[in-house]
Amino acid sequence: MKRMMIVAVALGLTLTGCISADDPNKNTKQGAAGGAAIGAIAGAIIGHSQDRSGGALRGALIGGAAGGALGAGAGMYMDKQQAEFNRVLAEERRSNQIEIERLQNENLKITMNSEVSFAYNSAQLTYAFNSTLDKVADILARYPRSSIRITGHTDSRGSADYNQQLSVQRAQAVGQYLTTRGVDATRVIADGRGEMQPRATNETEAGRQLNRRVEMLIIPDRDIQ
Description:
The chain has eight helices and five strands, in the order ααααββααβαβαβ. Helix content is 56%, strand content 14%. Helix 1 packs antiparallel against helix 2 (26-50), helix 3 runs antiparallel to helix 6 (130-142) and helix 6 (130-142) packs across helix 7. The chain has two domains: 2-75; 89-220, CATH 3.30.1330.60. By secondary structure, it is an alpha+beta fold. The longest helix has 34 residues, at 55-88. It is globular and about 60 Å long. The chain has a five-stranded mixed beta sheet.
């Protein structure tokens, strides 16, 4: 049994090691490799408990195949979605209005600069930013197999209570706008962190500007194949 677990882990590491850094399908392949290793381990455990005479090996093979398919499915789904965001929001990325980041767990994170998305000290979306959110909403509506967590952040100026309230209101404003443009409201969760999670110092204006933001985390469904 222990030997089967070692083989399963080695399989995942081997598959991951074969992926080059500039591979356009890197995330899909990494998801498949990780899913294969996890599935193989789970299959080995189940197979061993049911049939000690070779059951672990059969279970590892079956579990590895199933896990690899699930991992590749989510990775491919998010690969396609990220490619669309990168293409459609290319101008916004160049002007630093939006950042798009792929996380290791296949989640996508879109960070929106509050300087261009909201009026000063307000939760009112700027009219100019509506066209950007229209693009985001269109893609999200066409890729429904995910949930969307929207989180507002502020700098440390003002009271902590006020900043918390403003961060929540801004996240809710983005979520409400997306739902008016066809995104299912049951997919959307909005909350705020106020000044609690800065990503730069609040001692400089440049740092405070980075801290004033709204982040959108796009989380794929677990059962995508």
